[in-house]
Amino acid sequence: MKKSTGFEIREEERQSWGSIAMVWIGSVICVPALMVGGMLGNGLSMGGLVLAILTGYALVCVFMCFMGMLGCDTGLPTAVMASSALGEKGAKYIISAVLAISCIGWFGIQAAVCGESFSSMLADMTGVMIPVWLSSIVWGVIMLLTACFRFAGLKWLNKIAVPLLGIVLAYTLIDTLAGGGMQVLSGYEPASPMSFVSAVSATVGSFVVAAAISGDYCRFAKSRADVVKSSIVGVVPAGLGILLIGAVLAICAGTYDISVVLSSSGLPLVGLIALILATWTTNVSNAYSGGLSLSVLLGQDEKKSQITTAIAGIVGTVLAAAGILNSIQGFLSLLSAIVPALIGTMIADYWILGKGKMEGFRMREGFYAPGIVSFLAGALVACVTGGTFASIPVLSFLNIPFFIGPVNGIVTAILVYIVPAGIRSRKN
């Protein structure tokens, strides 16, 4: 890498692996993860559930480690690192756009969910009804302000919020089991049996986008070993815990919604705190990564990332308040489904052809055809085999479920990239 991109971090900005792990824990613990756990709990025995979750997160951690170590080596965020595999214009106009739109959209959706739940629970507790649009704006702005402090904001938020979330989740689980949950679990039979592969696929899909953008956070790691430690410790225990809690709540309480469970047990305030913290820790990452990608898309550098993060958060918050995000959630899901293909393209470029050495990393000018074709091929395979097109009527004929959609896309991207890119490298 011969020229500065304006995104390289200084050595004194490197963080301990524990700080990065805390960010991952905060990202894993979220309401959608409880939903996934509830879905899996309705389809698998507890033993099969644990094995599926561990297998899924193990796959995610492998991808996270490769992407994170690349970020650690280069000191660059994902949207910039992609220049080596797709060319600077490919990274700017394709990858940055996809990541920015996806992160901003999901930021808005999470802010809207938080605002709606806050207004509803506050009305139940006090009788005071705050408009949902106002709650969405307030919480969107609070989350945005945290993200504007960049990694330092994420680090300190998660240091405070993660232990509190752990206490609330532990209480929720104990309260549910003590209220007759143990008897329900002991005689539990899955209502809608699910295959093991489908369960692993759902687990991978719930966090694989985080693996793709792990360079945004792991670039702060001090070594490759720290990337591995932070990824495993930050993802596997928290992921297993939150999905199991979602499953237990779905089986025993009939809902995966912590706020509902705690409200029914007489502790609505605790439920409200849990919901806000779970959304906050995840959504700050959406704003931060969305801001970085927007910086690349707009041709700015890291110095302007606070401004672009603010723009990303404001746009997401306005969309949340306007109440139009539900109509585009399918589009956002489609974008999220194609992101994992980037992992395969970048693994092939840096780890296979470049042999994992910095000498093999270079910022290619313009559009790099092998990388773009590889990414598009992987994205298509991931969508076709992962069920993405099942909910899109005009494309439902392309729904051909097979194995694990994101993994299929990653493997396809690797295979498609190494042949033409390898030939070009030998010619050069």
Automatic annotation (TrEMBL):
List the keywords (alphabetical).
Membrane, Transmembrane, Transmembrane helix
* UniProt-recorded Gene Ontology molecular function terms: cytosine transmembrane transporter activity
Main subcellular location of this protein, as a coarse class: membrane
Q: In terms of domain of life, where is this protein from?
A: Bacteria
**Where is this gene product found?**
Membrane
Signal sequence range: none
- Give Gene Ontology CC terms: plasma membrane
Q: Name one Pfam family in it.
A: Transp_cyt_pur
Membrane topology category? Multi-pass membrane protein
Transmembrane portions of the chain: 21-40, 46-72, 93-113, 125-149, 194-213, 234-256, 268-286, 307-325, 331-354, 366-392, 398-419
Q: Which family does it belong to?
A: Belongs to the purine-cytosine permease (2.A.39) family.
Name the record gives this protein:
Cytosine permease
Lineage, top ranks: Bacteria, Bacillati, Bacillota, Clostridia, Lachnospirales
